[in-house]
Design a protein that fits this description.
heterodimer, A: mainly alpha, two-stranded antiparallel sheet, B: alpha/beta, 2 domains, four-stranded antiparallel beta sheet, 36% helix, globular
């Protein structure tokens, strides 16, 4: 396996976690979030800072990242999830921009220079410095995320979330505590994005605000939309496709964004539900256990 | 014993008094019809009772406990279920899942335990599914369980909504114009279903314009006009009540104005 392939596989794995978490909000609960990269960034910075300053081992740093991102998701979700779609879009967009500015201006986050020298993970004396080992670590986390979300969307919670997406008022009349569900799913999604951020920080070992701006939020959104909203397999495919595609388009550097945008527009015209959108055959045989 | 008590309920939208001091009660096992001309405030009443609207004044209580300030999902847990005049199914789900959604609050499995695969969780889900299938059989949709909900015929969608509401195991089931848009055969089927529910002792509050259905089914009828109760009593009396006839047909001297 070439080093280049390994690099793409690891990044792909990290983006899979990010896309799955965003898909919980958008595809399953039917809410909008345009600032998901903020949680990705919070996870990355918390993980980096706790290991750099307090010498946290990787697992503890990752756990801190998950918890802290989750709490941020909870605090953002509590007051804002009563808002309707377009307002929620604006609030999450604003949150993403604010968090990015905080990373850029705080002293402890290193401002625009970011943080360097983030240690590679070491678990039970086992070093994950080599890309092969890191790929294993990433795959393990991806599987964990997949298992959790699979259980979630196939339990009665998944049904409740889809009910909220289809008809919020009717869901309430059915006895579904819609505000609690929305806040819970937002918190969980933020926590998972924090995990992705932690993996990212300890892999690249250098982070700066650039990686967590609006661009990344939109990228995650594209992964969800491309793969298909409300489909776990879709989020995986979307994340992998948008990790590999930019690399394939690298030789057309100047036109990269143009081709990228063109592909998305084409997709929205001919396949608005995404590659593996819900209700399609491809999803049916996966979801039927 | 009084199950539902509606007391001096009012809802004003600006200067419009949609519901104005409405009081009535529904007893256990009773079938009560809520009728009145279009715009009389019937659906607004339903929305106030189920908690989708906050009343300007007045109260609603179930089994003697006030429902004031409770969100719709808590009222559902207390035993209120309803259907909608314009059908509101979960279009992204199949028929069975729609009914299972109605079972939501009767989950025996805790929120976190539901995430852990295990025999208990699977068994609870199987039981819920069996119940849902029974309800589908009751409303005559057993063969449609795997259909997408929005692929059903109109009359079937109405019955699916009833099955979904029954899955909540309500003390009181409120039906908002269940016969609206149905052809005469579908209305007959609905009649049979509602009679079946009556025999099972389910308490019903029904808004309906189909007088055959109301007169044939209800123990008692409450008539609304301009947001106020103008008459209440058994169907035989209501039918002859001059105020009711006036509300529906208008007074003779009014005819000239139109």
């Amino acid at each position: 396996m070439s080093a280049y392939f390994l690099h793409l596989a690891i990044l792909g794995g990290i983006y899979i976690i990010l896309a799955i978490s965003l898909n919980l909000i958008i595809g399953y609960a039917g809410q909008v979030s345009l600032g998901h990269a903020a949680f990705f960034g919070i996870g990355a910075y918390i993980s980096a800072l706790t290991s750099l300053y307090w010498g946290f081992p990787f697992l503890l740093a990752a756990l801190s990242a998950i918890l802290f991102s989750g709490v941020c998701g909870l605090l953002l979700g509590l007051p804002t999830l009563r808002l309707k779609e377009d307002y929620l879009a604006i609030v999450t967009l604003g949150f993403g921009v604010i968090v990015d500015l905080v990373f850029l201006n705080l002293e402890i986050t290193g401002g625009p220079d970011g943080l360097a020298g983030i240690p590679s993970p070491r678990i039970l004396g086992l070093s994950f410095r080599s890309p092969v080992m890191y790929l294993f670590l990433t795959l393990f986390m991806v599987l964990l995320t997949l298992a959790l979300t699979y259980r979630l969307v196939h339990s009665y919670h998944g049904r409740a979330l889809r009910a909220i997406r289809d008809h919020e008022v009717t869901a309430q009349v059915m006895g579904i505590n819609t505000p609690a569900y929305k806040v819970a799913i937002f918190t969980l999604a933020a926590a998972l994005a924090g995990l992705a951020g932690s993996l990212y920080a300890h892999y690249i070992t250098f982070i700066n605000p650039e990686s967590f701006g609006l661009h990344t939020s939109i990228l995650a959104l594209c992964m969800v939309v491309l793969g298909g909203m409300g489909s776990i397999a879709g989020a995986v495919v979307g994340a992998l496709a948008l990790t590999v595609l930019p690399e394939l388009l690298r030789s057309f550097k100047a036109y990269q964004d143009l081709i990228y945008g063109g592909l998305l527009v084409a997709l929205l015209i001919w396949r608005p539900e995404g590659l593996l959108g819900r209700g399609k055959l491809s999803l049916k045989f996966i979801s039927r256990e | 014993m009084t199950l539902l008590a509606v007391n001096e309920l009012s809802k004003y939208f600006g200067g419009v008094k949609a519901v104005d001091g409405v009081s009535f009660g529904v007893d256990h096992g009773e079938i009560v019809g809520l009728i009145g001309p279009n715009g009389a405030g019937k659906t607004t009443c339903f929305n106030l009772i189920s908690g989708l609207l906050t009343p300007t004044r007045g109260s609603v209580s179930l089994l003697g406990h006030s429902l004031g300030g409770l969100a719709p999902y808590y009222r559902s847990r207390r035993g209120l279920a309803r259907t909608f005049q314009n059908i509101q199914l979960f279009g992204g789900m199949d028929v069975l899942e729609n009914v299972l959604t109605g079972c939501h609050q009767r989950q025996e499995i805790g929120a976190f335990r539901a995430l852990w695969p295990g025999r208990g969780v699977r068994r609870a889900e199987t039981r819920a599914e069996e119940r849902a299938r029974e309800l589908l059989a009751l409303v005559g949709l057993a063969e449609r369980a795997d259909f997408p909900a929005d692929a059903l015929a109109y009359g079937e969608q109405r019955r699916l909504e009833i099955a979904r509401a029954l899955a909540q195991e309500p003390r009181l089931l409120m039906l908002d114009e269940p016969a609206a848009g149905l052809n005469s055969r579908e209305t007959e089927d609905l009649m049979t279903l509602l009679q079946e529910l009556r025999e099972r002792g389910i308490t019903l509050l029904i808004i309906e314009h189909d007088m055959t259905l109301i007169m044939g089914l209800c123990h008692r009828v409450v008539v609304l006009d301009h947001g106020q109760v103008i008459a209440a009593g058994p169907p035989s009396e209501i039918r002859r009540d001059p105020r009711v006839i006036e509300a529906y047909l208008g007074r003779e001297e009014d005819d000239g104005d139109l």
